[in-house]
Amino acid sequence: MESAGKRAMRVALAGNPNGGKTTLFNALTGLRAHTANYPGTTIECRLGRCTNGASGIELLDLPGIYDFNASSEEEQVALNALQGRSAEFGAPDGVIVVTDATNLSRSLFLISQIVEMKLPVVVALNMVDLAEAGGIRIDARKLAAELGCPVVPVVARTGHGLAELRAALRQMKPPAPREVCGGCDGCRFKTRYAWSDAITQRCVEHAPRPASRWTERIDHMLTHPVLGVAAFFGVMLGLFFLIFSLASVPMDLIDGFFSHLGGWVERTMPESDLRNLLVKGVIGGGGGVLVFLPQICILFFCISLLEDTGYLARAAFVMDRLMRRVGLPGKAFVPMLSAHACAIPAIMATRVIEDKRDRLVTILVLPLFSCSARIPVYSMLAALLFADNAWRASLVFTGAYAVGILAAVGVAFALKRALLKGESRPLVLELPSYKMPSLRTAALLMLDRAWVFLRRAGTIILFISIALWALATYPKSEPPKEAVALQQQAGQLRARGATKDADEAQAQANRLTAHAALANSAAGRIGHYIEPVLRPLGFDWQIGIGIISSFAAREVIVSTLAVVYGVGEDVAEEDPESLYDSLRRAQRADGTKVFTPATCVSLLLFYVLAMQCLATQAITRRETNSWKWPALQLGYMTLLAYGTALVAFQTLRACGIA
């Protein structure tokens, strides 16, 4: 069935929140869907082709809407799409209204408004299995006669009724002309509710069933001010245990694959800029993108399961009491915990937050939480500060995490009272009924999130990785005289059979060459250029190069410092103590040590608070649909990191701890 312009018939899926609309969309389209933003918003729509005999129909999954008096951005987007006010998607050719069979009367208000639009309508009566289990029986034929359009009972989670629904879609036609009500707004509301009540009484039977109080007992525990919080932390602990334990193996495999791929390219291709680009830029950048994928997949799979069961709404209710005190919603807590693994999936997880300002504030502060990429930096600086005291070194870690959390809370509090001030919407939510989650729906959501990450954020991250490689590679410079002399010495030693000494001389020559190449590159020159700005923090131009290079990933500073201080990147990876010893001995031109306690504390605070992750910037751009917010995020975090490091270094130096 084709509409004007030869395009496929486009049918919108509309319905109240928690009615199983997205589950039905996934069941009808499978993996034949793609995700896009509604124009001018960060709210996503999903377009997909029907499968199994209805492939000429394209489905548009709309945000949940209660009625045409849209009270949120999501509802306004759904209303605009239904009324054909979206320039990109145009007017729909028909509507599937997805209703919750366990609460039909609630959906009838929206149905009364949609049938008056004179569009072809099919009502998908979802979750009839739960309704029957609860003693609710709906006469679908009688309801169809009352509404003037087909009514198809379905169970989207199991696929029951989908064949009948596809058949109804192929035969869609406008409902019988009817106007539920007219007159003033107040009269319309009264008339619509009266109409809904009358249809419910005629079409719905409630069988007497013994009262079941187990759900009430569970709700009492999960929404309790103390027990609810404890249960939430238990669930989150389990969630992040799964992320860390299950993701570690595929992450190691991905990292190992790209390492071996880079090594294979180095062995098979002759030394050239192209080989260097492939190994350091393309393969290194690609590995840097894909290594996050297991965490993203596991996180969204688990979030989908929690949402399907009905638990996530109860967790948001409990945490909202605590989070509102600092200007954040309860639903921000899941992304905040996730940010301790990685800010990228955490920012993507903010989609559970409905309020636009609350979601934006959460996105802006999530990079302040210490992610796993900071751990190598913390390890290096803790070893430099307290080489032989594990307890004090552990305090460095604890303090770093605490500083990040306090900074995030403080910035969120300030943003909600300054830049993004305004009353947040009070948390009004409907606690959905408990039900078994759909593994298929969770898997489809996981695959969709993974593809969105790879297609949009991944391309930006790869481009940035190549750009940073170019900065660290060009312009080219000649090897220093010392390196040339060592290479000649290595050749002579090898000719005499002293292979071990020859290898050591060659390795030292390679380190000197790499150091000189980086120092004379564009990144090195930028490091020299910004040194006057960094000097008040106790940093020199070599640390400046580390800061620049670590925009690709925070942990890159460790290998960069190994190069600029002449240790060698391979040695730093195999024997971190060699790097730490070299950094402890590193001196400036005037003979003073570089990594004093004051400098280490300053650098630690800088890395706790600075952005230093362009992958996070890319995903922030993706989620906010604007470069303005990533720029603000980068700016405020850089100023906060610089100011805090400056105060710390100057205070410690004034106290004689230099």
Mind explaining what this structure looks like?
The protein has 658 residues and is an alpha/beta fold. The strands form two sheets. A seven-stranded mixed sheet has the order 2-3-4-1-5-6-8, sandwiched between helices. α3 links the parallel β5 (94-100) and β6 (121-126). The radius of gyration is 30 Å and the shape is elongated. It has four domains: 4-206, Rossmann fold (3-Layer(aba) Sandwich); 216-369, no CATH class; 478-520; 534-658, no CATH class. The chain has helices at 21-29, 73-82, 104-115, 128-133, 140-147, 162-170, 185-203, 214-222, 227-268, 273-290, 293-309, 311-323, 333-338, 343-349, 356-365, 375-385, 390-417, 439-473, 481-495, 499-520, 522-534, 541-549, 556-564, 569-574, 576-585, 597-609, 614-624, 628-654, and strands spanning 9-15, 33-37, 44-49, 57-61, 94-100, 121-126, 136-138, 151-153, 204-206. The chain contains 28 helices and nine strands.
What is the mean predicted local confidence, pLDDT?
79
CATH homology superfamily name of the largest domain: P-loop containing nucleotide triphosphate hydrolases
CATH topological fold name of the largest domain: Rossmann fold
- Number-wise, the strands total 9
**Number of alpha- plus pi-helical segments:** 28
Beta-strand content bin: 5-15%
- Rg, Cα atoms, Å: 30 Å
Helix content: 55-70%
**Cα end-to-end separation:** 77 Å
Count of individual domains:
4
Brief synopsis:
It contains 28 helices and nine strands.
Notable traits:
28 helices; 658 residues; two-stranded antiparallel sheet; 7-stranded mixed β-sheet; 9 strands; disordered N terminus; single chain; 4 domains; alpha/beta; Rossmann fold
